[in-house]
Amino acid sequence: MTAILPGATIGILGGGQLGRMTAMAARSLGYRIQVMDPDPSCPARFVVDACFEGAWDDARVAADLARGSDVVTLEIEQVSLACLDAAAKYAPVRPSAGPMRIIQDRILQKKWLAEHGAPLGPWRAAESETELAEALSELGGKCFVKSARGGYDGRSQVKIGFGESHISESRCGAPDAWRLLGAKPCVAEKALDLDKEISVMVARAPGGEAKSFPSALNHHENQILEWSVIPSSVPADLESRAQEIAAQIASGLGIEGLLAVEMFVAKNGELLVNELAPRPHNSYHASELACVTSQFEQAVRAVCDLPLGDVSVVQPAAIANLLGDLWLGEDGEAREPRFDRALAIPGVSLHLYEKHKPRKGRKMGHLSAVGKTPDEAVQRVMTAKELL
Ligand code: ADP
Ligand code: MG
Question: How many angstroms separate the CA atoms of 227 and 135, rounded?
Fold first, then answer.
């Protein structure tokens, strides 16, 4: 393989915050960047050389992007295979369509993981309302039903059997769940009793060299990541099992670029794979402060076939997501969060994605904080967030 050296152009399918932060890292290394996104004023827009407007399945625009790029990568797994194939005619696409086909469909992803020996919680695929009803009765008790395609941040998911304290869909059964998810293939999972959630980010170069970051500890509220910290400080044996599982998946899939492996640590101590993301991941935003090399720089190194960077932790760091809710007052009136107050906390930094419209549940930015310990970093970032 030959390295794609600085000065070359990187094309990114997707111009959301992940594309934006990757572009900023690529710029630091001296690359030129262009992105494709359905929204011409997407977050990456302000930091790239060119923005191509195109839907996730617009193969013609993907080909245009690739024609002027030395390598193409992606920041969202919903990009169609037709786009990846069209781009691959003009530039290497990393990760390629092979692993993307498997990852972008939850059913194929789970089947692949099961066939390759990854530990999974109880799950069933359902291609019809009847199959979903069977799946739910076989699994029994509380379940998550997730669309096979297209979900993120807990969207395209329905919780079953959680009782009245949860969202309105909570008491629905198979027919409602099937309808709510658009009558499309889905996966039913037994709701697990979680002790914690962790993730491992693996970077893999085209030649097969791989490096994994120390695991991150992730806290979700309403299925959306609320805060995350590196390192996770899980016991050494758990860490090494998590590392082994993630590395095996990345090499089994033949990933070129990044692969985030989300994992559950169940109350009974079991370590289970939740899902895969073949791109930078929200749970590694803290790598910018915590690690010698950030996940964004590592993505650039991996897809350009440069030597992978040092993933050691230099200091504990945490992030807290800032959702659109913060810009909406009690009465739905627009408000400006008090960033001045949050930034008065020592060790705290602000990252905004330049999204124009705040919406409930929409990720608008994040706060980050360093600390002497992971706990201190989390405490600082959450204190800062409360001051907003
Ligand atoms: P997304 O693609 O939206 O990230 P996930 O499958 O990762 O979807 O689900 C989001 C979050 O919902 C998880 O991080 C976890 O907190 C919770 N969750 C999902 N599936 C389960 C499950 N089977 N048991 C317990 N919690 C779950
Ligand atoms: Mg997830």
Answer: 32
What's the CA-to-centroid distance between 275 and ligand 2, angstroms?
Answer: 6
Query: Hey, is 68 helix, strand or coil?
Result: coil
- Taking the CA of residue 192 as reference, the ligand 1 atom at the shortest distance is 24
Burial 31-54 (b: 16+ CB within 10 A, else e): bbbbbbbeeeebbbbebbebbbeb
In the predicted structure, residue 384 carries a pLDDT above the cut 70: yes
Nearest to 139 by CA among 123, 120, 163: 123
Q: Is the peptide bond before 92 cis (omega within 30 degrees of 0)?
A: no
Q: Which of 18, 143, 218, 223 to mutate to test the pocket of ligand 1 (most atoms within 8 A of CB)?
A: 223
pLDDT digits (tens, 9 = 90+) for 241-265: 999 999 999 999 999 999 999 999 9
- The identity of residue 3, as a single letter, is A
User: Is residue 332's pLDDT more than 90?
Assistant: no
Asked if residue 64 has its Cβ within 6 Å of ligand 1, the reply is no
Ligand nearest to the CA of 157: 1
Contact 284, 203 (CB under 8 A): no
Cα–ligand 2 centroid distance for 153 (angstroms): 7
pLDDT at 170 over 90: no
**pLDDT, tens only, 233-242:** 999 999 999 9
